[in-house]
Design goal:
By secondary structure, the protein is of the alpha/beta class. α1 packs across α15 and α12 packs across α14. A seven-stranded parallel sheet has the order 3-2-1-4-5-6-7, with helices on both faces. It has a six-stranded parallel sheet with strand order 10-9-8-11-12-13, with helices on both faces. The chain is globular, with a radius of gyration of 21 Å. The protein folds into two domains: 225 residues, 3-Layer(aba) Sandwich (Rossmann fold); 159 residues, Glycogen Phosphorylase B (Rossmann fold, 3-Layer(aba) Sandwich), CATH 3.40.50.2000.
Length: 414
């Protein structure tokens, strides 16, 4: 195994660990930095203090950050509508055009000239655009099959105009992913299901699988105190649309059904970047708590009777479920929520689709808390056996080595 210089291209520096993507990226790369030289090229995080803290965290692990002085455009505000209108005339999805910038390309050009890496690693599918017509070996990390998420957005949208727009984004992402997965030296998925879809739908060859994982020494059951079976916990980045949809379903439909049968039930929402509208809505709503941008989610996992994950939209696999089970917290989710994880309904967690069945599963867990905790203990054993970061970093190392052994790309074109 040779020591490589790997340039990672990403939207932001992956710290603090406040989202599933950041958690995965930071844990894998800090393991890999023990044996490889890693340069991390990213757009500026919106918060200046966060940039300073994140850069230091990476340097402490031997990773050299290059911060591009340009922030990703916000996902709200009047300017968003102008950018979306402009995107109607582009062949690329909005998530690609909004992350592309002359500043980022210039930073990559300088690195290629002054300190050329052995491998370029696009840490999110839209950043494959950076490799368009660029020579050298590169890999693309598909945290999700993005077109699948846009397909699910489309299928769940009832507004005719929004449905039309989402359908266009879905089809554009299909075209973009077909190019990215085939042009890369190697494409990487987070689950066997995603890898099979990438090969079957997009013609990608030999997609590697490096699962999501969990720090099993950090997330473990609490030995002090008892769980409150009436406390339902939702974890997630609250600026991501699939999580917003799940929270909306909990607030509007699932929680009222549960409270009609178990009035003491209450919902605790813990997440990064909640919208102002959500903050305002929950300020005086009884039976619901909102905790934004918390430094450590473990106290919430230890106190809750269960983690509830009613995802209807999504792809990849959910780190929050792995973290919950590692902490011994019972999990109730959907078929989409458990998708991509080697967990079985009724053995490691409970999977229920539709608001009625999901609500009934929560009521059962409230009324039979010991049974729910026994199931979580079996789930924890599965997580310990298959999802620790150290073994997953070895898999990523193998992918890097195999990618650099291939003939250099002459420039990825469409």
């Amino acid at each position: 195994m040779s020591r490589l210089h790997v340039a990672v291209l990403d939207e932001e520096l992956p710290f603090p660990l406040t989202s599933g993507k950041r958690i995965r990226t930071f844990n894998l790369l800090t393991q890999l930095a023990k044996t490889h030289r890693i340069t991390y090229v990213a757009h500026r995080n919106p918060d200046d203090e966060e940039v300073r803290v994140a850069a230091k965290a990476l340097r402490d692990h031997g990773i050299f950050p290059i911060v591009v002085e340009r922030e990703i455009p916000p996902k709200s505000g009047i300017g968003l509508y102008g950018r979306l209108f402009k995107n109607l005339f582009s062949p690329l999805p909005y998530s690609v055009t909004s992350h592309a910038s002359k500043q980022f390309q210039a930073a990559v050009d300088r690195l290629a000239k002054e300190d050329p890496p052995d491998l370029w690693h696009c840490e999110w599918t839209p950043y494959a655009q950076t490799m368009f017509r660029r020579t050298g070996q590169w890999v693309v990390m598909a945290h999700n099959v993005e077109s699948l998420i846009w397909q699910r957005y489309t299928e769940n949208e009832r507004n005719p105009f929004k449905h039309w727009f989402l359908h266009k984004q879905w089809k554009r992402f299909e075209q973009f992913e077909a190019w990215a997965y085939s042009a890369a030296s190697r494409a990487i998925a987070v689950s066997r299901e995603d890898a099979d879809r990438m090969e079957r739908q997009f013609g990608a060859k030999d997609v590697a699988v490096v699962d999501n994982g969990v720090d099993t020494t950090f997330f473990k059951p609490c030995e002090v105190g008892e769980r409150d079976p009436f406390k339902l916990l939702y974890l997630g980045s609250l600026d991501w649309r699939p999580n917003q949809d799940a929270v909306r379903l909990l607030l509007d439909t699932i929680l009222p059904r549960v409270q009609a049968l178990e009035p003491k039930a209450r919902l605790v929402i813990v997440g990064r970047k909640p919208t102002d509208a959500l903050r305002a809505e929950l300020t005086n709503r009884p039976g619901v708590e909102l905790h934004a941008d918390v430094p450590d989610v473990r106290p919430f996992l230890h106190a809750a009777g269960m983690l509830v994950v009613p995802l209807r939209i999504g792809g990849g696999s959910r780190l929050k479920i792995l973290e919950a089970l590692a902490a011994g917290t019972p999990v109730i989710t959907t078929t989409i929520g458990v998708e991509g994880l080697r967990l079985r309904h009724g053995e490691h967690c409970t999977a229920a689709d539709g608001a009625e069945l999901f609500s009934a599963a929560i009521v059962d867990a409230i009324r039979l808390p010991k049974s729910a905790e026994v199931q979580a203990a079996v789930g924890r054993a599965r997580v310990l056996a298959e999802y620790d970061w150290s073994g997953l970093a070895t898999k990523m190392d193998d992918v890097w080595q195999e990618a650099t052994a291939k003939p250099p790309s002459k420039g990825a074109t469409r």
